Amino acid sequence: MAITPEMAKKWRARGVRILLQHDAGRAAGFPDAAYADVEFADAAAVLAQADLLACVLPPDDAALAQLRPGSVVVGQLRPHGASARIAQLVDARLTSFSLELLPRTTRAQAMDVLSSQAAVAGYRAMLIAAEASPKFFPMLTTAAGTIRPSKVLVIGAGVAGLQAIATARRLGAQTEGYDVRPETREQVESLGAKFLELGVSAAGSGGYARELSAEERAAQQQALAEHLKSIDVIVTTAAVPGRPAPKILSAAMVEGMKPGALIVDLAAEGGGNCELTQPGQRVEHAGVVILGPLNLPAGAPLHASEMYARNVFNFGELLLHDGALAPDFNDELVAKSCVSHAGEVRFTA
Question: What is the recorded function of this protein according to its Swiss-Prot or TrEMBL entry (predicted)?
Fold first, then answer.
């Protein structure tokens, strides 16, 4: 949900009239009755009247066609590879901002939807892993003997990976974290996990790793394949917006894992970090189960919405000046997140 009751009050305090679609927030835990000083209407009326449309995912073609020229659309618009959608935004003379395009700077942190939703995804991915694994995560001492803790490896130590590591630790698993960026070691170890050292470094810029050379990838995969033989659960989180997810786990590496092992591929929407991942599907190969869950933040809709709605409001404040919508394109955050404006394409990636 792009506007929660808490954020609706903040929008109103800025002099903004709020018009919501009936029951838009009910599934996320926000019934209409939870909103104060807000108007409700059907979807068509909302679209016809909106000066600024706040959304979670891109509106469909029919919805975009109902917006008035000059209206502003803010949300996760997924512009990479969406030439038809961008063309429609331009043809309709809509001003649109995709929050995934915000630069990864300190000033942008309060509106960084990639980070807020990745935190939810990392948490949910590890819960899915704990439920799907045939083993207990923690060590248990029972009358039938002692059960050793599961060995869990999280690949990728970004926001999602760190949240997955923290969740695995809370569940009592013996946890390791791996990332080709050496600067993440301290973050992994601060959560009580062991940093897996494979002898390959790919420090990049903007918070992302650079692409590995063929020699570096071969060395990484050889060392990783040997280590995976003892792992019970792997959660992979390596992704860069707008690019296919890097292939880290090959079919041969999966075949070398022990029967009953589990892989949860959080990068499934980008094609997956595992060669065998099928987005949205459960795959079993050589006794190993590979899960490719999609839209993980939707599994914790209340808190995901609370964080997302704060991100949207914080960005929205950049667009409001003296009670009116007046985007300042001299502002780096506004300029770099803009997809379309005044009948022109502003997204150049």
Answer: The transhydrogenation between NADH and NADP is coupled to respiration and ATP hydrolysis and functions as a proton pump across the membrane.
Domains in the chain with CATH codes? 5-101+301-344 (3.40.50.720), 119-299 (3.40.50.720)
| pLDDT at site 206 | 54
* 109 a catalytic residue: yes
Catalytic residue among 26, 104, 148, 282: 104
Note the helical H segments in 134-255: 159-170, 185-190, 214-228, 251-255
Q: What is the pTM of this model?
A: 0.90
Q: 63 vs 37, 50, 108, 186, CA distance in Å?
A: 25, 11, 29, 46
Hey, what are 327's tokens?
A: 């985007």
Catalytic annotation, pick one of 17, 107, 109, 222: 109
Looking at every residue in the chain, the average pLDDT score rounds to 93
308 catalytic? Reply is no
**Nearest-angstrom CA–CA distance, 274 and 194:** 22
